[in-house]
Amino acid sequence: MNRANRSRTNLSRKRIVRKAVALAAKGGFDSVSMRSLADKLSTAPMSLYRHVANKEDLLDGMVDVVFSEMYPPAIGGDWKSELRKRGTSARAALQRHPWAIGLMETRMHPGPASAVHHNATMGCLREAGFDFRDAVHAYNLLDSYTYGFALGENTIPFETPEESAEMAKTTVADRGADYPYLAEVVVELGKRGYDYNEEFKFGLELILDGLEQFLHS
Amino acid sequence: MNRANRSRTNLSRKRIVRKAVALAAKGGFDSVSMRSLADKLSTAPMSLYRHVANKEDLLDGMVDVVFSEMYPPAIGGDWKSELRKRGTSARAALQRHPWAIGLMETRMHPGPASAVHHNATMGCLREAGFDFRDAVHAYNLLDSYTYGFALGENTIPFETPEESAEMAKTTVADRGADYPYLAEVVVELGKRGYDYNEEFKFGLELILDGLEQFLHS
DNA sequence: CGTTGATTGCGTACGGCGTACGCATCTGGT
DNA sequence: ACCAGATGCGTACGCCGTACGCAATCAACG
C-alpha cells in the first residue's frame, strides 16, 4: 500500500554506490552500514542486495568512484608533468575520500575507472622510455609514496590544536627529556602546524627528479 | 569452585597484547575479537577489560609491539646506511604484521617503543645535517614510501597463481585490447611474479640518493 | 586469627553489524 | 489475461564491542 506506488526501479547500483560515497563523506566510513545506507535510500537493508552482491562489492564500486576522480596521465606526453598532475590529483582525491586509502589497492575486482587509470599511468611510463621492469618499479614507487602520504596525512592523530596539545602532554611531558628530537617535533608542529601541500610536493618532486636521472643513466 | 584455584593474576596487559598479536598473525586481523581473544586466554570476554581500557587501547599495545621490532637508527652514525637498515627492518616488520599497516600512524596514544623509534629516526636526520623542516620532509618521504609500499605489498589482490589468473581474466580478457599497457602488467606479473625485496630496494635507494643530493646542495 | 577494602574475574544483556532465505509485489511480453 | 522474471522486503541467525554489577580472591591491618 504505502510503498506500492513507489516506482520499482528507484534503486540501482549506481544510486546505491553514490549514496554510499556521500554517506562516507558526511559521517565517516564506519557510518556506512548496509542498514544505514538503506535508511538513507528510504528502503530496507535487504533490498540493496538485489543490486550489489555483498558489502565487498559495494566497496569495489566506491573505490572506482575515487579512481574516476584521479587525473589519468596522457600517454606519450611530457611524462614528468603528466605524472606530477596525476600525483597531485590522486592525493587530492584521497584527501576528499580518506576512507578509500586502505581500500584502493585491496580490491579483487577493479572497476572500469581503475582499469583506465592504471592503463594510462603504465602507458605514460612505458612511452617515456622505461622498459617494463623499470616502469613497474617507478609505478610502485610513485604509488607507494602517494598512498603512504595520504595514509599519514588523513589519519594524523592531532588534527585540532587541543588534541595536539593533549598528545604533546601525554607523549612528551613526563619523559620529554629522554626524547629530545621527538619533543621538538611535537612542540614545533603543534606551534606552526603542517603545510601538507608543500610536504607532498617535496617528496613528489624528489622522486620525479630521481626517476629522470635514472632514465638518463 | 572450578576456577577458584585458577591463580588470580594470570591475566595482564602484556599477556593479553602478546596473545592478540599472535592471534592476528595466525588467523588474520579480523579474527581478533575480544571474545576470541578471551577464548585463547581461557577466560571470559569481560575479564580483559580489567587490563585494557577498550579495544582501541588493545590496538595501541599491539602497534607498539610492531614498533619495537623496527631497527631504531643510531643518532650520529652514517645516516644513509642507518636509514637503509631502518627502512628494511620496518618493511620486514610490516610484512610480519600486515594488520598493523593501517594502524601505525593512527594511534592517539603512542607507546614507549613508538616514542623511542621516532626519536631515533628524527635524531638521525637532524644530526645528518638536515634542518628541522627538511628533516620532517625527509621523514615523511621515507615513511610514506615505506608504509605505502607495505600497504600495496600485503594487500595485493593476486597472491596465488590461480587468483592471479582469475583476475587476469575478469580484468583484461574481455576488454584487454582497450587497455594494452594494463594487460601487459597482468600477464607479465602473472608469469614471473614479483620480487618485493628488489622492488622495495629500488625505491628506498632512489629516495636515499635523492636526499643525499638535496643535503649537499 | 578475623575483618575489611581493593583488586580481579566473569555472567548477563543491549544494541549494532552482514546477510541467508523465502515470500510478496510489480512489470513487460505474449 | 496471463505468466515469468525482476525487484523489494520481513524475519532471523550468529557475530561484534562493551555497560553494569555481583562474586571471588588477596593484602593489610588490628
Describe this structure as you would to a colleague:
Two copies of one chain form a homodimer. With 217 residues, chain A is mostly helical. The first copy, chain A, has ten helices and no strands. In chain A, helix 6 crosses helix 7 (132-155), helix 7 packs antiparallel against helix 10 and helix 8 (161-173) packs antiparallel against helix 9 (180-192). The longest helix of chain A has 24 residues, at 132-155. The model of chain A is unreliable at 1-6 (pLDDT under 50). Chain A binds a DNA duplex (30 and 30 nucleotides) through residues 3-4, 6, 8-9, 11, 33-35, 43-47, 49-51, 54-55.
Gist of the model:
2 copies of one chain form a homodimer. With 217 residues, chain A is mainly alpha-helical.
Question: What key attributes describe this structure?
Answer:
homodimer, 217 residues, mainly alpha, DNA-binding
Provide the β-strand percentage band of chain A: under 5%
What spatial form of chain A do the alpha-carbon principal axes imply?
flat
Oligomer: homodimer
Compute the CA-based radius of gyration of chain A.
22 Å
Low-confidence stretches of chain A: 1-6
Report the average pLDDT across residues of chain A: 89
Largest interface: A-B, 56 and 56 residues
- Total beta strand runs of chain A: 0
Helix/strand structural class of chain A:
mainly alpha
Distance between the termini of chain A: 74 Å
Largest sheet of chain A: none
Query: What's the total helix number of chain A?
Result: 10
Helix content bin of chain A: 55-70%
Order of helices and strands of chain A: HHHHHHHHHH
